[in-house]
Amino acid sequence: GIAVDHRRKNRCLESLQANVQRLNTYKAKLIIFPRRTRKFKAGDSSLEELETATQIKGPVLPIKSEKPSIELVQVTEELRSTKAYAKLRLERMNKRMFGIRQKRAAEAEKEEKK
């Protein structure tokens, strides 16, 4: 059987589609033997498939994970001179102060018109 962890939620669409494809392939290759040799039920495999069935040892359908490609970049003087943390802090403060600055500008414009 297939072990399923019901607590886990797969939120990534790509891996979900890959798992669905893998399970569909598994179901297509699966040969279901009848419980009684003389009585076949719906869903059981045909006699030809039963005769050609062989036991598989080892992983049936291994999960193939692709390794992400890493792109190496030469460190330039421009990259060294950038202050990433300072830029992040500045942009965070700009976003935080956006409404206040807009309100002050509107008030200043109102004062100018008077």
What does it look like?
The chain has about 110 residues and is mainly α. The chain has helices at about 15-30, 45-50, 75-80, 85-114. The longest helix has 30 residues, at about 85-114. It is elongated.
What's a quick, concise take on this entry?
With 114 residues, the protein is mainly alpha-helical.
User: What radius of gyration results from the CA coordinates?
Assistant: 31 Å
The overall pLDDT, averaged over residues, is: 85
Secondary structure category: mainly alpha
State the shape: elongated
Question: What is the H-and-E element order?
Answer: HHHH
- Let me know the number of strands: 0
Distance N terminus to C terminus? Answer: 80 Å
The biggest beta sheet is recorded as: none
Secondary-structure topology with pairs:
Blueprint: H1 13-29, H2 47-51, H3 77-81, H4 84-113
Question: Can you give keywords for this protein?
Answer:
114 residues; mainly alpha; 4 helices; 0% strand; elongated
